[in-house]
Amino acid sequence: MTRVGAASKVTSTPHTSTVTGYCVRSCGSATAVGVAATAVGVAATAVGVAATAVGVAATAVGVAATCVGVASVVSPAAVVAAAVAAGDGAAASFPSPSSSSHPVIRRTAKVTVSNSVLAAFSMRPPRVSLDTRLRRCLNRTPHYHRPSAQWQVALANRWADCIGDAAMMIHPRLARLALRAPFLFFLTVGLGLLGSLAAVGQGFATGHALAEVLTGGAAEELLWVFAVVFGLILSRSILLWTQSVVAALLGATIKLRMRREMYGRLLDLGHGYTTNLHSGEVQATLSDGLEHLDPYVSKYLPQAVVALVVPLTVVAYLATIDLYIGGVVLAGALFIAFGPRVWQRTLGRAGERHWASWTTVASRFVDGLLGMITLKAFNASRRFGRQLRDEAVGLYLATRHLLVVSLASHIVIGVTHSGGLAAAGLVGAFRFTQGDLSAAELLVVLFLANEAFRPLSELAQYWHQGYMGTSAANGIFAIVDAEEVLHDTPARDGAGAAPAVAGSAPTVRLEGVSYRYPGATRDAVDGIDVEIAGGRTLAIVGRSGSGKTTLISLLLRAFDPTAGRITIDEAEVRSLPPREYRTYFAYVSQDVYLFHGTVADNLRLARESASDEELIQAARDAGVHEFVAGLPDGYETMVGERGVRLSGGERQRVAIARAFLKDAPVLVLDEPTSSLDGENERHVRDSLLRLMKGRATVVISHRLSAVDFADEVVMLDEGRVVERGAPEDLLHEGGRFAALAKAQLMSA
Ligand SMILES: Nc1ncnc2c1ncn2[C@@H]1O[C@H](COP(=O)(O)OP(=O)(O)OP(=O)(O)O)[C@@H](O)[C@H]1O
Ligand SMILES: [Mg+2]
Question: Which of 135, 179, 335, 426 has the most other CB atoms within 10 Å of its CB?
Fold first, then answer.
C-alpha cells in the first residue's frame, strides 16, 4: 500500500507532464514541443510496456502485490507522458493535485491492488466504474486537477484490461474441465516435463562434449557422452510420442464426458428450453464447439504447466552460471509469454466474431435443408442461396481477420525466440572474452537458452490451436448452466405420493393456471381451471392462437405454469419426478414427429419391449396396419428424416398407433384427425373411442366431428375460458361454440 501511495504521488507531483507543459509555454514552439513530447511519449510507452510485462509476469507467479508497486510507480508516469505526447500537454501542465489523498486517486489505487489480487487467482478484474459517487468527487475536484485524476482512472482501467487478459490465459472453467480426468491430465504434464528434462540433459551433455573437443580432449572419452546424448534423444522422442497419445486420450475423454453431459442436460431441460433455441446453432455447439475444446484442454493447458516450470528452472540454472545471461534469457522468456497478450483482446474479439459467423452459417444451412421444399415452392431458393453465400463470405472474412491477428503473434514470438538466443549467445561470448565464463559454460548456455524459450513458443502455438475452444466455451457452458425450466418441490409428508399408473385413470386438475412465454407481453393462457377425470373426455376448442397447445404443453409438463398449479389425484405435479409423471400420458401431437428409423422403431418409442403382435394390434387399432404391411419392407421400412417418406395422414395414424401402444391412463390428442380424409377419420374416430374407454382424455380440435363425443367442451379465447359445458348444451345456448359449429356445417 505504501508503494501505491507513492504511485499516486508520482501522478500528482510535477513531473514529465509539467516539464513538457513548461516547454510549451516558455518556448512557444510547437515543433520543439512536438519532438520533446514524442520522445517522452516513446520512452514512456517503452516503460509502460516493460512495467506491464513485469506486472503480468509477477501475477503469473503469484507475486501480484509486488508488481502492483512497480507498475503503479512507473505506469502513471507513462500514461501522463503519453498524454503529453498526444498533444494534451496544456492540460497536463497545470500544477498537479497536491495530494495523494485525492478521493478518485485513492479509490483507483485500491481497485488496482484488488485487481492484481484477483488476477493472481485467474479471475478477470473489474474496471473502475465512474459511478455517481466517483463522478461527484471528480466534479468537486478543481478543474486544473481533473486531468490527472482522469488519467489515473484511465490508467487503472488499462491495467485492469492488461492484467485481466493475462489472467484469462487460463480459462478457469476449462481448466476445471481438464481436471475431470486428473490422471490423464497430470500424465500429459508429467510426460511433457520429462521430455523437457531429456532435452535439457541433451543440451547439457552436448555442451560439455563439444567443450571437451574444443579444448583438445580425447575423442574416445567422448564416446560415452554421445551414447548418453543418443539415449536422451531416443527417450525424448518416445516420451513426446507417448505424451501425444495420452493427450489425445485426454481430449477424447473430456469430449465424451462433455457430450454426454450436454445431451443429458438438453434432454433434462426438455422442450420448454429447446423450443427457443436455434437448432443449427445448438448443433454447431454440440459438434464443432466440443471439437474446439480438444486442443485447449489436451494440449494448451498441460503445456501451460510445462511452460511455467521448465523456463523458470532453466533461467534459475543459467543465473547460477551468469546473472547477466540469466537476466537476458528471463527477459526474452517473459516477452514470449506475455508480449502477444498485448493483442489478446483483439484476438479474443476476432475469435468470437469467427465463432458467431460459423454458427450463423451452420444454422442457416440446416434451415435451408429442412425447408428446401418451401424454398422451391416459393422460388426462393436462389435468394436463400445468396444469403447463405453472403454469410459464407462473412465467415471467410472473419477467418481471414482471425488468421491475420493470430499469425502476427507468431512473428513476434519467432523474432523474440531467435533474438533471445542470439542475445544470450552474445552476452555469453562477451562474458567468455572477459574470462567470466568457461567454454563449457558458454556452450551449455547456448543449448539451454533454447530450452527456456521452446516450451513458451510451443505454448503460443497451442494457444492458437486452442483459443477457439474459449470462444465455443460460452455456448457450451450456456447449455450446461441453463436455468431449470421445471421447478420441482419435494413432496411433504407423503402429500405428493404418486398414484399408481395401473388401475383406473387418475384425475388431473388445472387450478388457476397461467403461462407467459419468455419475452411475451401477454399470457398465452390465463387463469384456466379444468378437470380431466377418469373415463371422461374434455374437449378444448378455440381460435388459432387461443392457447390450446400451450395448455397441453403445461399438462405434459414441458414447462411449469407461471401461476396456478396442476395436480394429479390431489398430488401437486411438481412433487413428482417429471419422468414418472409423464408415464401417465399418451400423446398425439399437432406436428407429428417421426424419427429417422423404421416404422417399428417409431412405434416402439412408446414401449420398447412391445412384441411384434402388440405392434400389429396397435397399428390395426389406429387403422394403419394395411398401409404399413403394404410397404416394401413392412414394419422394417425406413420412414426417412421426420418421416418424410410417409404422407401427413399416414404419419398421423402411425402416431395414433404409438399412443395405442403406450396404453397410458390419460390420453392427450392435439388435432388427432386433422390430416385424415373423411373415410379414414371415421375409422380412426371409432378406434379412438375404443381407446378412450376408461381413460381420461383431452382432445383439441377445430372440428366439431372430433369433439361432439366429449363430456365437456372448454372454449378458449386469448388464453381465457370463454365458454364451457356439454356440447349439446353449448349448441343450444347459441354462443361462440354454436357459431363455430354452424360455420362448419355451412362450409361442409
Ligand atoms: N414458443 C413460443 N414463444 C412465444 N410465444 C409463443 C410460443 N408458442 C406459442 N406462442 C404464442 O402463444 C399463443 C398461444 O399459442 P398456441 O400454440 O397455444 O395456440 P393454439 O391455440 O394451439 O393455436 P393453433 O390452433 O393454431 O394450434 C399464441 O399467441 C402464440 O403466438
Ligand atoms: Mg396448437
Answer: 335
Domain ranges of the chain: 2-167, 173-480, 506-584+703-748
Partner residues linked to 698 by β-bridges = 538, 668
Q: How far apart are CA 329 and CA 425, in angstroms?
A: 10
Measure Cα distances from 78 to 46, 99, 145 in Å.
8, 19, 18
Separation of alpha carbons 65 and 115, rounded Å: 10
Residue nearest to atom 24 of ligand 1 (CA): 544
Q: What is the residue with the minimal CA distance to atom 3 of ligand 1?
A: 517
The average confidence (pLDDT) of the chain is: 76
Supply the DSSP symbol for 322.
-
Percent of the chain with pLDDT over 90: 23
Mean pLDDT value of segment 267-289? 79
164 CB near ligand 1 (under 6 Å): no
Ligand 1 in contact with 550 (CB < 6 A)? yes
Fold agreement (173-480, 506-584+703-748): no
Cα(646) to ligand 2 centroid in Å equals 22
How far is the centre of ligand 2, averaged over its atoms, from the C-alpha of 548 (Å)?
A: 6
CA-closest residue to ligand 1 atom 30 = 545
CATH 3.40.640.10 for the 173-480 domain, yes or no: no
- One-character DSSP codes across 563-625: EEEEEETTEEGGGS-HHHHHTTEEEE-SS----SSBHHHHHTTT-TT--HHHHHHHHHHTT-H
Q: Angle 134-139-141 (CA atoms, 0-180°, nearest 5)?
A: 95
Q: Residue 700 C-alpha to ligand 2 middle, in angstroms?
A: 8
Q: Nearest ligand to the C-alpha of residue 540?
A: 1
From the CA of 525, the nearest ligand is 1
CATH superfamily of 506-584+703-748: P-loop containing nucleotide triphosphate hydrolases (3.40.50.300)
Q: Rounded to 5 degrees, what angle do the CA atoms 462, 464, 468 make? A: 110
DSSP string, 238-255: HHHHHHHHHHHHHHHHHH
Contacts of 231 (CB under 8 A, 6+ apart): none
Q: Distance between CA atoms of 29 and 628, rounded to whole angstroms?
A: 96
Contact 300, 251 (CB under 8 A): no
Q: Which of 21, 142, 166 is CA-nearest to residue 88?
A: 21
Is pLDDT at 497 greater than 70 in this prediction?
no
CA–CA separation, 310 vs 60, rounded Å?
A: 14
Query: Which of 273, 513, 544, 549 should be mutated for ligand 1, with most atoms under 8 A from CB?
Result: 549
Question: What is the pLDDT averaged over residues 26-42?
Answer: 36
CB contact at 8 A, 552 and 566 = no
CB of 524 sitting under 6 A from ligand 1: yes
Alpha-carbon distance values, 394 to 297, 361, 387, 571 (Å): 28, 9, 10, 54
Which residue matches cell numbers 573437443?
213
DSSP label at residue 222: G
In the sheet where 712-717 sits, what is the strand order?
585-588, 666-670, 696-700, 537-542, 712-717, 720-725
* Residues 365-389: tens digit of each pLDDT: 888 887 887 788 778 888 888 999 9
Neighbouring CB atoms inside 10 A of 370's CB total 14
Q: Is 667 helix (H, G, I), strand (E, B) or coil?
A: strand
Distance 505 CA to ligand 2 centre (A): 25
On the question of pLDDT at 59 being above 80, the answer is no
